[in-house]
Design a protein that fits this description.
By secondary structure, the chain is of the alpha+beta class. The protein is built from five helices and six strands; from the N terminus they run H-E-E-E-H-H-E-E-E-H-H. Helix content is about 45%, strand content about 25%. Strands 1-2-3-4-5-6 form a six-stranded antiparallel beta sheet. Helix 2 (about 85-95) packs antiparallel against helix 3.
Length: about 180
């Protein structure tokens, strides 16, 4: 009987040791996934000519948009293949009048190292936290954080600002009719 108990304990311990790395990886993945408890505020599609570029959705814990009130989650689901360099260049153009040149140079280099190229169905998400820090995700996986509140707010304002290049899209994302 002692052998059976010892064998059962050994088997259970061995099973725990084998499963532990998988459990640890699952827990780490959950820490880096986009927040599940956010409610949609608004959604819109960016089209240029007849081409769908991306579907955008803005979410918050309350499901309401309150200017300058975070956290906010912006998700861009791309509808075409776009190379990373083009994504970074377009973002740089949108940010040129919103942040200081030195910061723009720094964050542009960071974005080039963080962002991948995208294809139809890929999602790049940006979480703006109450402390002003921003976190990028790609298809639900953590890409990296940017501790630059000025950049992070300006980045979000590309889509939400009153001076957005796409005012109809901005209005829909903010949940306005």
């Amino acid at each position: 009987m002692k052998t059976t108990s010892l064998g059962s304990i050994t088997s259970a311990l061995l099973l725990c040791l084998l499963l532990w790395p998988a459990c640890a990886m699952a827990e780490a993945a959950q820490q880096h996934a986009t927040p599940p408890n956010f409610k949609p505020i608004g959604a819109a599609t960016l089209k240029v000519a007849l081409f769908r570029i991306y579907d955008a959705q803005l979410s918050s814990p309350s499901g309401e948009y309150l200017p300058q009130k975070e956290p906010l989650l912006l998700e861009l689901k791309y509808r075409r293949k776009i190379h990373r360099d083009k994504l970074v260049e377009k973002t740089k153009q949108q940010l040129a009048d919103r942040i200081e040149p030195e910061l723009l140079t720094d964050v542009t280099a960071t974005l080039k190292s963080l962002w991948p190229s995208v294809t139809d169905g890929d999602v790049i998400a940006f979480l703006l936290n109450p402390n002003g820090n921003g976190i990028f995700y790609y298809n639900g996986q953590h890409l990296g954080a940017l501790p630059h509140p000025q950049f992070n707010r300006a980045f979000m304002d590309i889509w939400l600002g009153q001076d957005s290049s796409y005012p109809k899209l901005a209005s829909k994302l903010r949940g306005e009719k």
